[in-house]
Amino acid sequence: MQRALYQLLLLLALPLIPFRLLWRGLRQPAYLRHVAERFGWYSAPTVSPLIWIHAVSVGEVRAAQPLLAALGTAHPGAHFLITVMTPTGRDTAEAIASVDVRVKVAYLPYDYSATVGRFLDHFRPRVGLIMETELWPNLLAECAARKLPVALVNARLSEKSARGYLRFRSLIGDALRSLALVTAQSAADAERLTTLGARSVQVTGNLKFDLTPDERLREQGRQWRRRLPPGTAVLMLASSREGEEALVLDAWLKLDANIRKDRLLAIVPRHPQRFDEVAKLVTDRGLALSRRSRDDAPESDVWLGDSMGEMAACYALADLVIMGGSLIDSGSQNLIEPCAQGRPVVLGPSIFNFQEAASLAVREGAARQVAQGAETVACALDWLQNPADMRRAAEAALQFTAAHRGATGRTLAALSPMLAERL
Asked: Considering just the CA atoms, what is the radius of gyration of the chain in Å?
């Protein structure tokens, strides 16, 4: 019954898809490119043997990078296809493909049996690896019909998502049971996935701990720091979502001007279509604004990181990071990346997307969490005003990321029997 209802909803949504793409394209024109791929039509030549990796957007593509490198070393004759769903994810994947001729990039089509069938028949992958939580019932059913083994890799399932999936337990359970393997980030994720129907589950850790910050970008961030007035401390709101910038800006303006004068507030929005909107939030409050896109020196009241692909540079500029997504009910963005550069993190109340990592970071002294999003600024300034505490937290952040590395090797070992059989 649930599968039939899902098919009906997809059918009803089909006429609306072009309008949705057009609406999103008005804000982000890249949504209007490669539209045919979203319906399963591809011009890219096929290669074999092919390992297909699906990573919905930027975070998942980044998480896949260490595994992709390990797979490339272990299977030098293999080719790789990275599929995504967002233009920013595609840009990130194409940056990887630009330095590795074995990697191709495409959009995964919408989850209609015909479209995903065309995708699978065109590329004919030997193995499918789906990152984190992308469980598309028709896609997995079509893979099963073709006897294509699929693994859910770096899998996570928050308590909130698990409660939602329980309402569709039959539909999601069938999808999970079709998987050849699940490698979960934590024991809690593994338990929730097993409860929903996953059968072959191994806990391998979080691949995001194995990411190495790009040294070229880190040097770019250090160059930005050298343009600051001596003694300036940088507080950064990173990967922010709508509603969070206003919270932080208003809290910032309530501070005494003498406290703010030796501090720079940096804001890096998560979505590029919001760059100008965030700039207006700053100037409407009477604050002086500098922008990365104009290569302004970061020495005004607020510096806007309105560029893509430079988060490692942004973290190198910062002293302390307020993690976007945690101030509102969005579950937090990736706090592991700033910690990997020794940048302590302040979290708001919402951390369900990184529950395990966030809890560990707080326990190990690399992060602090507050009960309300608006309290993050006061918490961050309290930290900045205590240099000894900041030094301890910076060291704790480095130790936190170092202590939890190794997921790539464990994931590769778990996948090896399936890869050996299929390749």
From this structure: 22
CATH number at residue 310: 3.40.50.2000
Confidence of residue 4 (pLDDT cuts 50, 70, 90): confident
Same domain, 147 and 49: yes
Contact 175, 370 (CB under 8 A): no
CA atoms within 13 A on the CB side of 302: 26
Query: Is residue 30 domain-shared with residue 154, that is, in the same domain?
Result: yes
- pTM, two decimals, is 0.92
Within 172-324, strands assigned E span: 181-184, 201-203, 233-240, 263-269, 289-291, 302-304, 320-323
Cis peptide before 125 (omega within 30 of 0): no
Residue 22 CB contacts under 8 Å (≥ 6 apart), including other chains:
32
pLDDT per residue as tens digits for the range 349-380 = 999 999 999 999 999 999 999 999 999 999 99
Tokens for 385, please give them.
């005003």
List the CATH number of the domain containing 194.
3.40.50.11720
User: What are the strands, taking DSSP E only, across 47-135?
Assistant: 50-54, 79-84, 103-107, 127-131
CB count within 10 Å of CB 43 equals 9
Residue 118 lies in a domain: yes
Please report the sign of the dihedral spanned by the C-alpha atoms of residue 322, residue 324, residue 326, residue 331: negative
Residues taking part in catalysis: 60
